[in-house]
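Translate structure to sequence.
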């Protein structure tokens, strides 16, 4: 399967990216799309006046498949794509050697003609802390509500979507995959399917193992003070000191998961790296594996038309273990096996964009009328 990215389940063909000998590999700049990618801007009322002072006007990229303009009577499923921590929407066009970008890969899914067409929406939820986890937080802003209550209606009003949860999916990788799982459980009225690639989950394993390292870095470099770190970080070029990303990432997660109503960010660990139980419980309340065991979220998962879960077996954050735990939680919740696709594949956490179009094709088949 890895050789030509062809995926079969039973007699279902999920779509195929051409083998390397059929692709034009001399593409260091761009590839022509068969569909159309619109660059839009949303003026968000929900993000206006957010606690970080981040822009309330947000970019949004909307892809329409080949033939969209030729068939004005046709309506399409919509698939919303969330990015991981530190990613913003324009980074979808970052090109690595010998590979296509995800918008190009997605276009290839639909231009091949063997997958039902869909509209693909690339959502931006970047913050000046590097991300929002797609949650509403008094420390960052209302990014969950922005997605569900502003972006989705905005797209439905301007594009020919099949405007119902049974024809709408949310997908993502890493923090975006965690966001996809949590969003679908919180708002099954909006999304009826999801895909998560190495999504944040099983926090007791994926997050907790790194807390002592963060506590040590904070102690040795900033005397244990996040205020000192943030002041230093914002005074210079980001990434020019060891530990910049790790320290900012932890603070951004705490801002999303464990901020008080007045915006105070509560860290989930003390100066020894041990968890603070009452704060850690707030993190676990948004762990997809923990959520799936609660009756209201189990019911939401049972209502999903399709759930894709995958991760690399060498994931540096142990999110393959999180994916396995979430798959088991789906079974415990009573989600029928035929609605689930689960796979662990040979890879780490990064450079797995070739997986996304496989899920895109799988979801498109299940969301189409």
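Result:
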């Amino acid at each position: 399967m890895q050789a030509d990215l062809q995926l079969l389940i039973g007699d279902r063909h999920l779509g195929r990216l051409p083998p390397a000998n059929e692709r034009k590999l001399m593409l260091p700049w761009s590839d022509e799309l068969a569909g159309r990618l619109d660059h839009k801007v949303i003026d968000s009322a929900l993000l206006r006046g957010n606690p970080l002072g981040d822009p309330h006007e947000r970019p949004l990229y909307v892809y329409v498949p080949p033939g969209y303009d030729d068939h004005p009577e046709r309506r399409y499923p919509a698939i919303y794509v969330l990015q991981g921590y530190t990613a913003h929407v324009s980074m979808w066009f970052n090109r690595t050697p010998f590979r296509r970008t995800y918008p190009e890969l997605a276009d290839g899914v639909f231009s091949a003609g063997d997958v039902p067409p869909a509209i693909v929406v690339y959502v931006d939820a970047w913050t000046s802390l590097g991300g929002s986890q797609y949650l509403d937080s008094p420390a960052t802003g209302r990014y969950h509500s922005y997605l569900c209550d502003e972006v989705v209606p905005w797209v439905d009003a301007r594009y020919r979507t099949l405007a119902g949860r049974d024809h709408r999916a949310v997908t993502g990788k890493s923090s975006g995959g965690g966001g996809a799982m949590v969003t679908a459980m919180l708002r099954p009225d909006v999304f009826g399917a999801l895909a998560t690639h190495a999504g944040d989950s099983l926090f007791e394993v994926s997050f907790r193992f790194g807390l002592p390292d963060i506590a040590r870095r904070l102690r040795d470099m900033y005397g244990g003070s996040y205020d000192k770190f943030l002041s230093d970080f914002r005074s210079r070029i980001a990434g020019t000191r060891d530990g910049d990303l790790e320290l900012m990432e932890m603070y951004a997660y705490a801002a999303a998961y464990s901020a008080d109503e007045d915006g105070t960010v509560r860290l989930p660990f003390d100066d020894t790296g041990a968890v603070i139980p009452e704060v850690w419980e707030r993190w676990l309340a948004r762990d997809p594996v923990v959520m799936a065991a609660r009756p209201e979220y189990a019911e939401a998962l049972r209502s999903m038309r399709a759930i894709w879960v995958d991760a690399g077996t060498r994931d540096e954050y142990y999110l393959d273990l999180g994916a396995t735990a979430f798959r088991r939680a789906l079974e415990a919740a009573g989600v029928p096996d035929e609605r689930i696709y689960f796979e662990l594949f040979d890879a780490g956490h990064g450079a797995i964009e070739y997986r996304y179009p496989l899920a895109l094709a799988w979801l498109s088949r299940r969301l189409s009328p």
